[in-house]
Specification:
The chain is an alpha+beta fold. It is built from 14 helices and 13 strands. The N and C termini lie far apart (55 Å).
Amino acid sequence: MIRAAEAALARRQYVSAIDVLTGMGLLTPSHVESWRKGRIDFLERVIHGNLKKISASMATFRRWAREKGLQPSETRYVRKTRVGSVDLQFSKSGNPGIEKLYRTHYISPALSERKRMQLVEKLNQAKKPVVFEVLRDSQCSECGVELPQGSFLFLEVEQALCLACARMNDLEYLPAGNHALTRRAAKYSGRTAVVVRFSRLRERYERQGILVEPAALEKAEDECALDADERAHERSVRAAAALEQDRHLAARMTGQIMKLFPGCSLEEAAAIGRHTSARGSGRMGRTAAGRNLDEQALTLSVTAAIRHRHTNYDSLLASGLDRVLARHEVADRVQGILQGWRNPN
């Protein structure tokens, strides 16, 4: 229990009963998500172990929090429905005292008062409802209207509803792409919903945009039109600063690669530095270790460069060979070059 609680506290500066139960393996994240969506009537139904074990774990958790000097903060767990917000239930009995114990979060005293208040406000906000873009023809389970591919539906306790039955047909769709417009429209809209679509390629739901009130969207569009030139200038300044930062990082990496691998040519070291530090690439150079010029991170980057530049690794992959087998096939060649670059004498 203590390991689970301390891990959550270190990660987020607060810890909840759900964090502890999932960390202990007594509760699965998928069950928590189903409970939040209203598919499970009370959370204790899916917590592994009897009530005595659960109560003992929660008592130990609260005692640990007091001994650590954590600040208790009662958080409201709610679910958005078409008629408003509904409180989620933790216990089978619904006893207010038991519900309060489950709802209480414990916040690190290291947080400033301002950050603590911001965290409490964030925790008490209900999650925005999610609307799904239909991939194949469907039907509203309430009114029976046909929902063709590309239309929107809302799931309420496993029931597919059209936007009219979900009371969202007065909202306007704002596609993703314009961050300033999206941020302002969401700010001014009293009701919003997130629109997602399932990607078969990535096997996950991806955000497509939001639904907002038309008046909020109109106000946001007017504001964006007024300061469009100013925001364009700011983007240009940020882009120039990012480009300079990337050049500086690539130069530092090149120098460090030459120190670690003196047998590597300056031209090749510079190419590796530019490649691995490319912004948005997700490569090793963009990790914290890479930006700090960690020896292991740079060695992995150089190894990858050798594999692609100096072996037939890419040809093996193109022929259909498994990635692991292809790496094994070229491993000796890679290690030979790596050692030669490290010890040129």
